Each structure stands twice: as structure tokens, then as C-alpha cells.
Amino acid sequence: MANESQLNTLNIDPGGKGGYAVCYGGLKEITLHNLDTVSDFLEHILELEEISDGFLQAVLEDVPPYAGKNIPSYTSFKLGKNCGQIEGILRARQIPIHLISPRKWQAGFSGLKGLSGTARKRALKDHAHRLYPTLKPTLRTADALLMAHYFFTHKP
């Protein structure tokens, strides 16, 4: 297995308005991307595979089967569908996947208790901006960036 400085890592929030962060050799160089379409995502994966020369892994949010009473069922369906498509692409490309639950990667961030929906997303974006202000995370990319932060600082 490659050492951390050689691995490029995709960190993916599969939500309907999700995004992903690409970490080149850890947290030193990171790019943020909106997850607009699965076909655009696949195209980016193919480009990353070329430059990574086999040293590519993925961190994917392990979405819960039930999102909660404050989340509409169509949103949960889209989340599950996106997650399944992305996981299928990663497995078909034989990219190693690390699944991390939202509960796990969000555990260290204060001020989230009792928040849901947009208020929770904004609080997470604030945490991402505090940790990585030069990257200018958005509501769409903040979760992926925070998952990357968790993955590289906690090594699950």
C-alpha cells in the first residue's frame, strides 16, 4: 500500500446538493468540487486515476437508512440513490472505499446539537471555513471537507 504522501483521496458527500474534496497526499493540497452529476463525477475520477497512478482511495459518507422526521422522503431517496451510484462507480473502478457515518465525522464539532436542515449545514460550513479559510468552502462542499479533516486527523 502507498504511504499517505502518495495517496490521493476523494472525500464525498453524496447528498442531492453535495460535493467532494480531493486531497492530494493528505491535507496539504485540497480542491473542492460540487457534485452536480454522476457523469461529471465519473469523468473527474477517470482524470484522477490517470494522475494518481493507482494511488487513489475514497472516503464516502455512509448515509443512514432513515434521515429523520425533519427530512422529506424525496430528499432521503435522492441521498440514497446518489450514494449507491457513487459507491457502485468506486467499486467498479476498484478504488478502495472508507465509509464514515455522519455521526462519527461530526462528533468533534460543537454547536450542532439540536440543529437540523439548513441551520446544521451552516454550522458545519462555519467549522469548515474556520479550519480551511483559504479554500472558501460552501454549503455544498463543507461536509466533504470536514470528512477529509476527520479522516486524516483521526485515521478511523
Shape: globular
Low-confidence stretches: none
Strand order of the largest sheet: 3-2-1-4-5
Query: What is the radius of gyration computed over CA atoms, rounded to a whole number of angstroms?
Result: 15 Å
How far the N terminus sits from the C terminus, by CA atoms, comes to 17 Å
How is the secondary structure organized here?
Elements: E1 8-13, E2 19-24, E3 29-34, H1 38-52, E4 56-61, H2 73-92, E5 97-100, H3 102-106, H4 117-131, H5 142-154
Parallel strand pairs: 1-4, 4-5
Antiparallel strand pairs: 1-2, 2-3
Helix pairs in contact: 4-5
Task: Note down, in words, how this protein is organized.
By secondary structure, the chain is of the alpha/beta class. It has a single domain (about 10-155), classed as Ribonuclease H-like superfamily/Ribonuclease H (Nucleotidyltransferase, domain 5, 2-Layer Sandwich). Helices cover about 45% and strands about 20% of the residues. It has helices at about 40-50, 75-90, 100-105, 115-130, 140-155, and strands at about 10-15, 20-25, 30-35, 55-60, 95-100. A 5-stranded mixed sheet has the order 3-2-1-4-5. β2 and β3 (about 30-35) form a beta hairpin. α4 crosses α5 (about 140-155). The longest helix is centred in the middle third of the chain and has 20 residues, at about 75-90. The chain is globular. The two termini are about 15 Å apart.
